[in-house]
Amino acid sequence: MTRAGVEYLHRVNQPSPSLDLLGWREWFSIPEIGISRIKAKIDTGARTSCLHTCGLEVYRDGDGVGRVRFTVHPLPKRPSLTVECDRPLVSSRLVRDSGGHEEERPFIRIPVTMGHHTWEVEFSLTSRDNMKFRMLLGRTAVKGRFLVNPDLSYQIGKPLRRSRPIEA
Asked: What confidence score (pLDDT) does residue 71 get?
């Protein structure tokens, strides 16, 4: 390879200095549906993002517009905490999971917040009961916005720490 070719590859593979760094997991909020805290896995191997839901119901409103009703349990260790949601349906598409299984899923768009960043993300809705994370953020949602370092965690949306009273 020529010297110019090596220099080009070096420039192309350099991270942009303007992109914030994410870890493999981050804390988010989804204020529009009342979720103040939800932990997400940043999964660059997944193209689309996914939100864990229960009681999924796709329907048409009085004007014939597609909508979806669902419940979110944002914190796995607090199953009694539920958030009831009703959002416009963007589309329904076939999604292949990491095991190669295909499933028709409804998609919604909704703004998410992490630290001082807020942007709209398209989510597929499905049950993630057997998964550790209730939200998966795929590469489409982070592309051009962040760099991901899989050695790190909670770089931007750090979890709130509980403070304990000092005992005398």
From this structure: 94
